[in-house]
Input
Amino acid sequence: SPRSGSSGCDDVAGGLVGSNNGLISNVYSISTVSAVGANGGNGALGGNGGLTAEGYNVNGGNGGNGGNGGSGIAGGLVGENQGVISNAYSIGAVSSVGGSGGIGGGGGIGGVNHLASGGVSGSGGNGGSGGNAGFSQSGGITGQNNGTINNAYAIDPVTSVGGIGGAGGSGGSSRGTSGESGASGTNTTSVAGGLVGANSGSV
Output
């Protein structure tokens, strides 16, 4: 099977801690925080087809799929909060960027018929699909809140940029049937909040 690109690593960053599962109280941060998801790896190219002894050519191999981009999650105090944040504030700039999806590998060229008659050219391989982009979330206190936030504020500028889906690989050429191009990966939306990027808890 064609080798797919590896997925990009996620990046979670906070002015104090990346991930909180406990209690953070009576603290503040003036740090600049940035989280950037890694890009997905590109898919491998499909192998070219060859000529068999009977005059029938081997089809080109399919290209590998691009890897998905990693996510970027940033918070002025905590990247991801599963616990409690109380009596806290942040005044540093916060930004996050989602990783781009990897490019799909191109399909291999179909084997060419060199016989005067009776031979059949192989089909081109299909291109691999592009990887999906990684999402991004930023918040003045936390990028993702699944816990509890009490008596907290932030006055920092917050930005978030979603990743771009990878392009699909081109189909392999052939004197017979050319391969189909792979589908492009999906883009993602970005989420930014003055206090919390995305909230599933209590504020």
Q: What stands out?
A: The chain has no helices and 14 strands. The CA atoms of residues 139 and 193 lie 5 Å apart.
